[in-house]
Amino acid sequence: MPLRHVVDLFETRELHFASPESWDDPYEKVLRHKGSSLAFAQCWCTRAVSDAMWRIYSSDRTAIRIRSTRSKLLVVGARIKATYNATFRLDEVVYKQAREVDEGLATIAAELKQTFSMNRAVDALYVKRDAFDYEAEVRAVAFLQPKKGVQPPQHLRVRIDPHSLVDSILFDPRAEATYIRMATYFLRKSLNFEGPVSRSALYRAARIDIPDDAEPILQADAYRRRSSQTLPCLGEICGSRSVEVRIEDSGGVPVLPLCDGCLCSHPSGRPRSEIQLFDQSKIQFVDKSKVQLVDQSEVQLLGKPKLQLVHQSFVQFINKPQVQLVD
User: Where are the domains of the chain?
Assistant: First the structure.
C-alpha cells in the first residue's frame, strides 16, 4: 500500500474497508443484487514474498507492506459486528479457471433468484480466476443489514489500535535508501511505531564463486571486509540501523551480517528460535545437526560436517557433508 495509506491508518486509527464495486476486476462486479452496496471488503496477501505484488502495487517503488495476523483481523471483525450490527467473514480466496468461475457465479445467481441470502451472495467474493493466484489472497468482508430509508455508506471505516494491529513494516526492495531513511524516521518519530521496519531483501543475494583449484566457497561479495567493520544489519528485528559485525578467527562466522538482536532474540529479549533470511524462507534450529525450513521440509547435515575460515570472511565445508531431506 502507499505510504500515505499507512500514515492515514496510524493518524486516524481507522481501518478502511472499500466497496467491491470500486475494484478493477470486472468479475467482481458481474453479480449485482440488492445487497451489493451493503458489502465492504479488505484484501490481504498470505505470501510474504512476491515479486508480482511489489511490481503491481508499487509501480513507483515506494509502497509499503504491513504485516498482521488472522487473529487480529478477527478482533477487527468483532468490533464491526458490535458497532454496525453487521456480519463479518474472513476467508481465503479460491482460484479457478475462468470457465469454472463463470459456472460458479451462475449457480449463485440462480440460487439468489430463488431465495436471497447475503451470506450466499458474499460467496461470489471468494472465488477468482487463476490468473490472479499470485495474490494468495485472504479477504475480510463485512456486510451491513439494510435499513429502510437509509443510504449505505460508500466505504466503511473501523476504529482500531494500529500499534496492536501492525506487527511489522517492509519497504519495496527497489526503494531508494534515502526514501527509506526518511520514511522510517517519520514512522518512528511522528507515528511512534516501535515494531520492525526494514526493506525487503528480495533482490539481495550472496554470490557463489567456484575457484578452479579449490572446493566451492560461499562468499558474500558485497560484505567481504577486514576483521571488524560497521555494516547494515540484514535482519528484520533492528530495522535499518547499522551494527558492528566482527569476523573472529576462532568461532563460527556469519557469511552475512546479522546483529545479536536479529540473530538471537525478539525485541522483547526472549530467546529467538527462528530467523528469516532474505525475506524468503525461515530456518529453524532443531538441534545441533539439523536446520528446518519452516512449513516446508527439514534439511539435515549428515555425519560431522566441519567448517573452516577462509580469508577472514569466507566459510567452506572441509569434508563435503551430505544433505538429505528429512520426512
Answer: 3-165, 204-326
